[in-house]
Amino acid sequence: MIESFIILAAFIAAIIDTSLGMCYGTVLTPFLIISGYSPQTVVPAVLLSQLAVDIVGGTTHTKVKNFTKKDVKVALTVAVPATILAALGAFANVRLPKTITKGYIAILVLVLGIITIYGIRLKSSPKGIALISSVAGFNKGFMGGGFGPVVVSGQMIFNHDVRPSIAIGDIAEIPVCIVGLLTFAVFSKLSFSMIFLIVCIPAIVGSIIGPHLTAKMSQKNYAEKVIGVVMLTLGLITLMRIL
Length: 243
What we know:
The chain is mainly alpha-helical. It has one domain (about 1-240). Helices cover about 80% and strands about 0% of the residues. It is built from 11 helices and no strands. Helix 3 (about 40-65) runs parallel beside helix 10.
């Protein structure tokens, strides 16, 4: 019975992630832990399924032209520093109190959410995007989350269109997930279980649907507002858990 709910949760999480560029781990990780799985099983299961979602979602984003050749340069500007900082974040995992890091991510997401909702835009800057991507990568490596909300809204704030920003959020996360899995394999026991398949299969199906929703939302000009509201909600929930 519980497997049916996990399948549904993975499917919904993948649709949200590939349509908005965020929230896969935020939705699925706590659900799996509540379902009785240990963090040692949940983390690699989420990372592996996230990798599958990003690959399939990125392919679909390309097919529906949310991501085109002109976006490759920005994607590399996001992916390279994010991947490097993800590794550093993983190594720093035991160094800082989790409460401090959660508070920092919550405040950062809140601020970016407000900026996104009000449509504030800065001059296009590759350095600015690289900086925000480094922060997002560190978040992913350190906490396992906080990548999508930061990297997607960061691109939009630096004057990048919403459709490729969402697509790049998924595509740039591919090497980040690979680094996370390798780090986990090296420094912890990585053993495969049936939950990997239970999560991956519905997530892959959901990731085919999400990019089509991205295209539709951007045509109606409310994708930015949806992303802003989701980010504000995530930030507030994170702060409430801390307090």
